[in-house]
Amino acid sequence: MTAPLALTMGEPAGIGGELTLLAWRQRQAAGLPPFFALDDPGRLGRLVAALGWTVPLEPIARPEEAAAAFARALPVLPVALARPVAAGRPDPANAAAVIEAIRRAAELAGAGRAAALVTNPIQKETLYAAGFRHPGHTEFLEELAGGDAKAIMMLACPGLRVVPVTVHVALKDAVQRLNVGAIVSAGRITARALMSDFGISRPRLAVAGLNPHAGENGAMGREEIDVIVPAVEALRAEGHAVSGPFPADTLFHAAARKRYDAVLCMYHDQALIPLKTIDFDRGVNVTLGLPFIRTSPDHGTATDIAGRGIANPDSLIAALQMAGEMAERRAMRRSVA
Questions:
Q1: 1: how many CB neighbours lie within 10 A of its CB?
Q2: pTM of the predicted protein model
Q3: CB-based burial, 235-257: b 16+ in 10 Å, e otherwise
Q4: CATH number 3.40.718.10 given to 1-151+291-337
Q5: Any idea which architecture 159-278 has in CATH?
Q6: What is the CA radius of gyration of the chain?
Q7: pLDDT at 1 over 70
Q8: What is the dihedral of CA 121, 193, 333, 105, to 10 degrees?
């Protein structure tokens, strides 16, 4: 992998800055590929001083300068904040810089000048107050990618990968939005990504039911019969290795997880509860379906502990590691093609 990873600032008043500094400090022990931060060098410098850490910073003008600097300093591609940052107190005035960091990183990844995009957590309410109109990173990145990109979210940790078919909507709305096309689309995108980015030649997809006991043949709801089974059959007809629908309460124990490579879940918590229970600290959010790679820690901004130097960087480190591995696999596929 010749290009470095691009790491966005996330919410400046949250723990993103600390995570970035900690990831650089642990770069050798974690075997991290070179990365650069799209951030305000002044605010990172003040954070380093406040925490009493030794993290030299090196502003860069171009991503191509990051690899040479990475061993001696954290490379920073400057994105200026409008106002000074108070830890734990998000300021809508800085929302434009947060959005600009994501936009620039996506452009660099799309152009191949960054091998992948890794995003620190954002404070959505603060961005909404500044006019941001997307539910989150996934939808914004889909728009930035343009074309026919269809982005979906995968959550991954060692031993489990889950894809929620419906995501940030109320449970009653998730049931209404569930349809054959959405499940089939999620299955196609997931299978394609598992092959190209995770090195799985024939991915095995399990599909969770929506209702208790997967509906018990209609006794507890007809969604399995009318929606989920037809989607499973459609994916099988396309040649995918798909099984289900299975009752969700027996789908995530250790023995069951050996029988598939990823699970298509019907709603947000059905996917995220088992993953965060199995490995809360090392969960990674991966956006599938984009022309570039994007990963992120699977947690929020933690403004309640921001600025104290006690944030756990494991999820960001896992996201950087996964992004590097995915980029290497894509590079290998291009060299063979």
A1: 19
A2: 0.93
A3: beeeebebebbbbbeebbeeeeb
A4: yes
A5: 3-Layer(aba) Sandwich (3.40)
A6: 20
A7: no
A8: -20
